[in-house]
Write a structure and sequence with these properties.
Keywords (chain A): Cell membrane, Membrane, Transmembrane, Transmembrane helix, Transport
Number of helices of chain B: 15
Number of strands of chain A: 0
CATH class of the largest domain in chain A: Mainly Alpha
Protein name (chain A): Putative aldouronate transport system permease protein
Shape of chain B: globular
Number of strands of chain B: 2
Oligomer: heterodimer
Shape of chain A: globular
Membrane topology (chain A): Multi-pass membrane protein
Radius of gyration of chain A: 25 Å
Main location (chain A): membrane
Number of helices of chain A: 14
Number of domains of chain A: 2
GO biological process, one term (chain A): transmembrane transport
C-alpha cells in the first residue's frame, strides 16, 4: 500500500469495509451456530425462544432418538452409495466427452458442442422427464437418480477448457510412439489432469450428496431414500403440525428438535470435509472462469 | 464402465455423431470418410455421452408433444390423440395460472435485483482486504452455504423463522408481536430472496474475484498518475475490468429467470402462502404429478421453458449489440 492511498477517505472506507464484512461473516455463520445450539437444548428452552448461540438445558436425548431410528441410518447409507456410484459414472461420461470436444481438429466438433450447450438453455421440463423415467422402468432404482444427471454441461465445459490448455506436443509425441487415442487419454492426458479431475469429482459428489428431488419423485419406498429426503419429510411433517395450532404444539416442539439434530447430522460431513476441499473448488471454478 | 467397453459399443456406431450431410458432394464425402477413419476412436468416446443427451435431454424435449396430445398415465409416452391447443387455451383461461405467472415474475425479478449485483459489491469489498490470510478466511466462510443441500437450507430457514426461533425471540425482546413468518404470504418473498442471497452471494463472488486478478496493475498506476482517487479508480478501472464477467452472468441469470428455484419454493411454501409463493414450476408439479393432469401440466411447463429460451436469446442479442459481450 503506497502512502498515496492512505488518504482520510480511504481509511474511513477501510473501517466501513471491515464492519460490513464482519456483518457478512456473522450473518453467514449465525444459522449454523444457532441450529447446533438448538440440537443440544431442552424442549422448554427452545419453545421459550431462549436458545441463541449457546445450548440451554444441555441434553443429548434428541440425538439418541434420531440415532436409534434405523431408517435414518439406512438412508444415510443410501446417500453414500448413490453418491459414489453416480460420481463414478458421471466422471467417466464427462471426461470422455470433454476430451472429444477438446480436439479442435475433429470434424463435427461444433455440432457435438452444440448438442451439449443447447441443453443449458432449453430442457424438456418436469412432466416429460417424469413420464420418460417411469416408462423406462427406472422407478425405485438408483438409475433414476444417476443416469439423468450423468453429465453436467457446466462441468463438461470446465473440463474441456482444461484439456484444451494442455500442451498438444505431448499427445503427438505419444501418438508417434504408438499409443492410440485411448492410450493417450489414459496414460498421458488423465495423469496430467489430476487437478481438474479432483475438482470435478468434488463438484459431482457434492451435488449428488445434496440432491433430493429425483429420489423424492422416483422412489416410493422409505428404505430407498437418501438422507435428504428423510430430512425433507421431517420438515414437511413439522410444517403440517405447525398449522394445526396450539393443540399440536407439543408434537411440533419435538419435531423441531429432531429437525435440528437431523440437520446437524446431515450437514456434518460437508462441514468436516469442506476446509480440506474448498481450495479445489475455488481453483476449479477459476479454471473455467479465466478461460471465459 | 471401462474404456474397452466404450470401445466395443463405439465401433459399431461410430458414424452416428453426425450423418454426413455433404455426402452428395464428392470432396465433402471423402473428407468425412477420412475424418472417421482417422478419428474413429475419438468418435467412439462420444457415443455414450451422445446417447445420454439423446435419451435424457432431447427425448423429454420431444416428449413435450404431450402438451398437444391427450396423455393417459401408463399409456403411450407421447399421448394418445391430438387435441391441438386445447391445453394451452385451458391454462390461458385459468386464473390460478395468471396468479402463479405473476408470482414467478415477481420472485424472479426480486432474485435478479438482489442476487446479481450483491456478489459484485461483495467481491469489490473482499478485494480491498489487503491481508491475504484474512481474505482467504472471509472467502471460505462466504462460500460455505453454497455447498449445502437445498433441503438443509430450507430446514435452517424454517428454524430461524419459526415462532420459537431467534428472529421472533428478538421481536419479543424489543416488545413486538411475534410473527408466524412461514405461514404468512406477506413474508414469503422476503424469506425466499433473503435465503437466496444468504446461500448464493458468497459463491457468486468467485468469478468476479478471478476477473479482478486479471486486471493489469499498470492501469491503476496510470489512473493514479492522472490523479484518480480510490473511487475513480474503481469506477474507471475495476468496473470496466469485470464487465465481461458481469454481462455473461447477467445473461445466464436472465435465462433462469422463469425457472425460479423450484426446489426451494417447493420446500418452503404451504397452502397458506400459495397467494405469493406458488410459481409456475410448483403449479406444474401439483397439476401434473399430484392431480395427474399430465398434458395440462406439460403445456404450462413448455410455455415456461419457451419463455426462458426467448429471454436468454434476446438478452444475448441485446448485450452483443450494446456492450459487445455475448455467450456465443
Amino acid at each position: 500500500m503506497t502512502t498515496h492511498d492512505m488518504t482520510r477517505g480511504y481509511r474511513v472506507f477501510q473501517w466501513f469495509n471491515g464492519i460490513v464484512l464482519t456483518l457478512v461473516v456473522v450473518v453467514t455463520l449465525y444459522p449454523f451456530v444457532n441450529i447446533l445450539a438448538r440440537s443440544f437444548s431442552s424442549q422448554t428452552a427452545i419453545s421459550a425462544g431462549e436458545v441463541n448461540l449457546i445450548p440451554k438445558g444441555f441434553n443429548l436425548t434428541t440425538y439418541q432418538i434420531v440415532a436409534s431410528d434405523p431408517i435414518f441410518w439406512t438412508n444415510y447409507r443410501n446417500t453414500v452409495i448413490y453418491t459414489v456410484v453416480a460420481t463414478i459414472i458421471a466422471m467417466v461420461m464427462t471426461t470422455s466427452y470433454a476430451y472429444v470436444l477438446s480436439k479442435k481438429h475433429l470434424k463435427g466438433r461444433k455440432f457435438l458442442v452444440g448438442v451439449a450447450v443447447f441443453t443449458m438453455f432449453f430442457s424438456g421440463g418436469l412432466i416429460p422427464n417424469y413420464v420418460l423415467i417411469t416408462s423406462l422402468g427406472m422407478k425405485n432404482s438408483i438409475w433414476a437418480i444417476v443416469l439423468p444427471n450423468a453429465i453436467s454441461v457446466f462441468n463438461l465445459l470446465v473440463m474441456k477448457a482444461f484439456f484444451e490448455s494442455l500442451p498438444q506436443d505431448l499427445e503427438e509425441a505419444a501418438a508417434i510412439d504408438g499409443l492410440n487415442t485411448y492410450g493417450i487419454l489414459w496414460r498421458i492426458v488423465l495423469p496430467l489432469s489430476k487437478a481438474v479431475i479432483a475438482t470435478m469429482i468434488l463438484f459431482y459428489a457434492v451435488s449428488f450428496w445434496n440432491s433430493w428431488f429425483g429420489a423424492f419423485l422416483y422412489m416410493d419406498r422409505s428404505d430407498l431414500f437418501p438422507v435428504t429426503v428423510y430430512l425433507r419429510n421431517l420438515i414437511a411433517g413439522a410444517t403440517g403440525a405447525d398449522s394445526y395450532g396450539a393443540a399440536a404444539a407439543e408434537v411440533t416442539q419435538i419435531g423441531a428438535n429432531i429437525q435440528s439434530v437431523t440437520i446437524v447430522l446431515t450437514v456434518l460431513p460437508i462441514l468436516v470435509v469442506y476446509p480440506f476441499v474448498q481450495r479445489f473448488f475455488v481453483s476449479g471454478v477459476m479454471l473455467g472462469a479465466v478461460k471465459g | 464402465m471401462s474404456t474397452s467397453e466404450t470401445l466395443t459399443v463405439g465401433t459399431a456406431r461410430e458414424p452416428e455423431p453426425e450423418p454426413a450431410p455433404k455426402s452428395h458432394r464428392r470432396k465433402g464425402g471423402s473428407s468425412w470418410g477420412r475424418a472417421l477413419r482417422r478419428d474413429w476412436q475419438l468418435y467412439s468416446l462420444a457415443v455414450l455421452p451422445l446417447l445420454f443427451f439423446l435419451i435424457f435431454r432431447y427425448a423429454p424435449m420431444i416428449g413435450n408433444v404431450i402438451a398437444f396430445r391427450k396423455f393417459e398415465p401408463g399409456g403411450n409416452l407421447f399421448g394418445e390423440e391430438w387435441v391441438g391447443l386445447r391445453y394451452v387455451k385451458l391454462f390461458l383461461n385459468d386464473p390460478t395460472f395468471w396468479n402463479v405467472f405473476t408470482n414467478t415474475l415477481i420472485l424472479g425479478g426480486l432474485t435478479l435485483l438482489f442476487c446479481f449485483p450483491l456478489p459484485i459489491v461483495l467481491a469489490l469489498l473482499l478485494n480491498e482486504v489487503r491481508r491475504r490470510a484474512l481474505q482467504r478466511f472471509l472467502q471460505s466462510v462466504t462460500y460455505l452455504p453454497h455447498f449445502l443441500s437445498i433441503v438443509i437450507v430450507a430446514g435452517l430457514v424454517m428454524q430461524i423463522t419459526s415462532i420459537d426461533g431467534p428472529i421472533n425471540a428478538f421481536l419479543g425482546y424489543i416488545g413486538s408481536e411475534k410473527i408466524s413468518f412461514i405461514q404468512d404470504p406477506d413474508w414469503f418473498r422476503t424469506i425466499y430472496v433473503g435465503s437466496e442471497v444468504w446461500q448464493t452471494v458468497g459463491w457468486g463472488t468467485i468469478l468476479y474475484l478471478a476477473a479482478l486478478t486479471t486486471i493489469d496493475d499498470q492501469l491503476y498506476e496510470a489512473a493514479r498518475m492522472d490523479g484518480a482517487g480510490r473511487w475513480r479508480q474503481i469506477w474507471h478501472v475495476t468496473l470496466p475490468g469485470i464487465r465481461p464477467t458481469a454481462v455473461t452472468l447477467l445473461i445466464l441469470n436472465i435465462g433462469t429467470f422463469m425457472a425460479v428455484g423450484f426446489e426451494k419454493v417447493f420446500l418452503l411454501y404451504n397452502p397458506l402462502t400459495y397467494p405469493t409463493a406458488d410459481v409456475i414450476s410448483t403449479y406444474v408439479y401439483r397439476m401434473g404429478l399430484e392431480a395427474s393432469n399430465f398434458s395440462y401440466a406439460a403445456a404450462i411447463g413448455l410455455f415456461e421453458a419457451l419463455v426462458g429460451l426467448v429471454l436468454i436469446l434476446s438478452a444475448n442479442v441485446i448485450s452483443r449489440r450494446t456492450v459487445g459481450t455475448s455467450l456465443w
